[in-house]
Please model this.
Amino acid sequence: MLTLGFFFLLWPGECAATSNPNASPFRLCDVHILRHQLHLDAMHCPEEDFLSITHVALEFTTQKNGVRGELVGLGRSGQPYLCPVHAAIARLRHMRLRNAHTTNPLYHVFGPTPTTVTITDLASHLHQTCSVLGSSIGIFPSNISVRSLRSSGAMALLCSDVDTDKIRLVGRWRSNEMLRYLHVQALPIVAPLATLMVHPGFFSLLPSHPFRG
Model:
């Protein structure tokens, strides 16, 4: 759920259980899997078809900050673990094996004692990881929350020179509100700016016209 939250720029209530009655989690029926342009039946396709999935998409059905029926899809990241396709397949396998209902939220965990992945659970994992690795990159547990998944996903796109319009599409921002999520402290963004500001410009100005018509 952390992986899906990061790549799809999800709100906490979309990827974890919360006490907020207005939360709209993504459900099993909201997951779409594709082999290139071909849609596969996520609940009934053969297990071996999972190996050939190239894209996964989430459909907006009850989420208030998306257009109903719209799909946001992503391909494989190329990484063995940090990948939206791998994360979605892991959830599908788990829920199919337990005969989950299609309306079950993705954060449901089935076992001897069924449970849910909560915002507290996700925050705990983030804080534990940050305690081990955060000091090396200037991030501490007190700096992050589950909401950080949304902003960090947007920052990762921005640092990779992804157009801000595309970031807004993935994150479902309908205005420049997105800009408050994007931190000017990010070194890949701001480090080259001084060089760019003093680099000789290859341009000329239009001369002022000395006469009035």
Notes: The chain has eight helices and six strands. The longest strand covers residues 31-35. Residues 119-133 form the longest helix (15 residues). The mean pLDDT is 85.
